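Table S5 (text form). Sequence records supplied for joint modeling of the two-component complex.
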Amino acid sequence: MKKPNWQYFSLEEYRQRLDALRGRMEGLGVDAVLVNTPENLYYLSGYQTPGYYWWQTLVVPMDREPVSVTRRVEDSNMRELGWVEDRRPYEDYEDWVEKTRDVLVDLGLRGKTIGMELGSFFLPARDYLKLQALMPDARFVDSTGLVEAGRLIKSPQEIEYMRQAARAAESATLAGIEAVGLGATENDVAAEMHRAQIKAGSEYTGLPMFIASGVRSTMTHATWYRRPLQKDEVVFFEVPGCINRYHAAMMREVYIGDPPEWMSRGMDVVTDTLAKAKEKIKPGVVAGDLFEEIKEMLDSAELGAKLERRAAYSIGIAFAPDWGEGHILSIMRGEERQLQAGMAFHLIPGVRVVGLGGILCSDTVLVTERGCETLTGGVEQKLFVK
Amino acid sequence: MKQATWQYFTLEEYQGRLDALRARMEAKGVDCMLVHTPENLCYLTGYQTPGYYWYQTLIVPMDREPVFITRLLENSNVEHLTWVEDSRPYGDSDDWVQQTRDTLVDLGMGSKKIGVEMGSWFITISDFERLKGMLPDAEWVDCSMMVEEGRMIKSPKEIEYITQAARATEAGVVAGIEASAVGATENEVAAAVHTAQIKAGSEYTGLPLFVTAGKRSFLGHVTWYRETIQAGDTVFLEISGCINRYHASQMRNVYLGEPPEASVKATGVMATALEEMIKFIKPGVRAHDAHMVCKNVIGDAGLGVELNHRAGYSIGIAFAPDWGEGHIISLNEGEYRELRPGMTFHLIPAVFIPGLTSVGVSETVLVTESGCEPITGNVERKLFSK
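The corresponding structure-token record, covering 772 residues in total, follows.
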């Protein structure tokens, strides 16, 4: 391990992450794993780039230091941001699968058992099949989730980055509330929110900010679209901040005009559900049980729509296309795992009522030894009115 | 086909895209095709969401209207944005592979030839393997790039959106030049760029905007990171604008202080390389030769460095993690396909000069019937100084 010029975590912390991964590799019975997922590469090594639309992998053998295979243009990022010393980049005109095969053979893995992240977006089936064909003597097994298991519990330094990210999310939310008004467009509001979020230190985020008014607030994942804001409509914000790739996110809403009963009562139910869910969160709680309680609170209030999705998702390191890591753990139906101290969630109670608007309010929370701490509490949990 | 609430193209244009795809499917001999790539879904139907980190597919049979399978939450986007009438969404705790299997069986495809985009990021290997296991009698054919082939040549309406995007791009670049100053942080410049670009109508882009200065600027794909800009730094701006998911990009540099001769010279070389490419490009020339024009201008200039990446990439519809579509066609060594009218490229002569920084001057251009015309512009092709 060498010391990077820009270092996000101590070498000890990286070493612990690597050792823990090797422990899980041993359990799976593999001689090496290939790590292709951008978040996992960053978590293990410090390497990051938005250029992960080219092949990149970290080969982690059981018995030897890891080797990176990235595009030549990106190699600087491993050199300056990562601790990995053995870097073997490929040129734009080279075949990266053959290059990877050459590296694996050179490391003595020709006839060995190799784990690959078969559930990862950034390992296309075609490249996988080609590598298999190039290495007929190797045995390939699915190692999806092996690195993610380490990401689930956040260390003190990771939590510190998420706290900083939360400050940027709050700044953007406050700027958005301020910018909402008749005569403004969704883009005018989005422009002010980006200005505030980035000035507060945020980096680019894993998903765009969500800023949607009126009917667009009922469309999942709709975001700013040049629409003029109108009276008697809700404006929905779902806003992240990002520091060293760690995210915190929050939802708030602004109503333009006198909020009707469905909106004001609905927001009371949603914020009440959010508060009660936080009271219930503590180590040992079963995620699926918590989901059912949240769903019951929302559904029994008869807001015109029911909770049709998960109630929270794990959040931490992210690259597009997601700022969450709900595939690692979500608070959803049937999830039998228990909450543990050091987990972080974006807790997202709310519903979208077709023909009316979204009723949503959320926070990023940390599971502590004793309960639950809100990271994005700098903006009141209520319906803002303009 | 039904009319959408927000419609990006006429139903005739969508029908034309679908017909062209079916002709390619027929040539490949498949009975239906599964489309998983976000850009391809948008191109074929108008569907878009940043939420493509959940499984989604459009099943396109040869002999029947297409069927959408998305997360239940995203079904609102099928309803409001697309012409597709047959939508069969799945719930958060449902099995989407099972849903896909059931739908294929219902469409009579259980033992047919089915095309899959095996080069796409958004069908994971584990989902694909499971689907294959559930339909043992089906035959699977790689249909990567089948939809992309249609995306390569832009229609007048597509060119109009790219042209609108170019205006937002330029607004961002101009604001970035304006905000660059000794003592400002990279984040302050990035904030100004985002504010201007979004106010000029832009949507979220497929990559973050690249705004960097000083000591980190030699990293590949690096972007803003809270560093303070100092005298003698070069601010690197590579900005994209986006309208209806169509992108246009542009690159410029700003020097803080009296620029050294070497920087001025290198920027001049990049501008010349760009102009020579624009003069050279017309229908019938090979992509490889256009690349060599750029490579030779830079190689012959005596800068002591060479072009070490492709000279340009196709650009159009994009979702993260890319704003280009260079995998469809790039101006690169060994790419011998001929250029055709309606192709659009981001031409990117740029080098890293040790001791200075990355230097680049770029434009997004259109291949016309008779030559090549810039779509971005309106910002001088020079090294700016402040």
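Note: Chain A touches chain B through 74 residues (CB under 8 Å).
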